[in-house]
Design goal:
globular; Rossmann fold; single chain; 22% helix; 8-stranded mixed β-sheet
């Protein structure tokens, strides 16, 4: 794994130990950030990497100009490697690491109350197979509208066979992509909850690599 673009382009990311986490390939990560480019939600903004593992999404966002990233995970072994990756990239000042149950705390705002404009949700696959109203994932997605900006976006990675509901509380799916064996869904606040013109509300067709 490596950082694809930005100030730390090409930097290798230390991988996780064991098989609990499932690191994303460089090619798919680059494709996801290509989709995100049109939303302008990274540069000088607050980003959350939830179920961050060793920090691939968050480090990529920092390299591309994010003001700060809050990394959330409950796996202490992954957090240990994450801190090494943050130090290696010299992003200590721009990073906040929270070791906690992500299903319960979601994407915590900055100390000054600033909300996240972009939230990556990337739980282990066994934690994201249940998506109905009473599932843990549904509870997390229903929590996030209070934690993101009006133009904010939530990016959820699951197995391809997993189908998210069209909406969770004030969040709705506006785009979905298929890459290899995984699906990536992009969710935004519903029209009456967001500032008009900040997101593209048409759901795209699924594409693959």
């Amino acid at each position: 794994m490596r950082i694809i673009s930005g100030t730390k382009r090409g930097m290798a990311i230390l991988p996780p130990k064991g098989d609990r986490t499932r690191p994303i390939t460089d090619r798919v990560k680059e494709s996801i950030f290509d989709v995100l480019y049109k939303y302008n939600l990274i540069e000088d903004r607050l980003v959350a990497d939830v179920f961050c593992g060793t920090g691939s999404f968050g480090l990529e966002a920092l390299s591309r100009g994010a003001k700060q990233v809050v990394f959330v995970d409950s796996d202490r072994n992954a957090i240990e490697i994450l801190r090494k990756n943050i130090a290696k990239a010299d992003f200590m000042a721009e990073s906040r690491v929270v070791c906690a149950n992500a299903f319960k705390i979601g994407a915590p705002p900055a100390a000054n109350g600033e909300k996240c404009s972009l939230v990556f949700i990337d739980p282990p696959y066994e934690m994201s197979r249940e998506t109905e109203g009473k599932s843990r994932l549904a509870g997390l997605l229903e929590l996030l509208p209070e934690q993101i900006t009006k133009d904010g976006l939530v990016v959820v990675r699951t197995e391809k066979k997993v189908n998210l509901l069209d909406s969770y509380g004030d969040l709705k799916i506006i785009d979905k992509r298929i890459w290899s064996s995984m699906a990536v869904s992009f969710l935004a606040l519903k029209d009456d909850k967001q500032t008009s013109g900040n997101t593209d509300n048409s759901q795209s067709s699924q594409v693959g690599i």
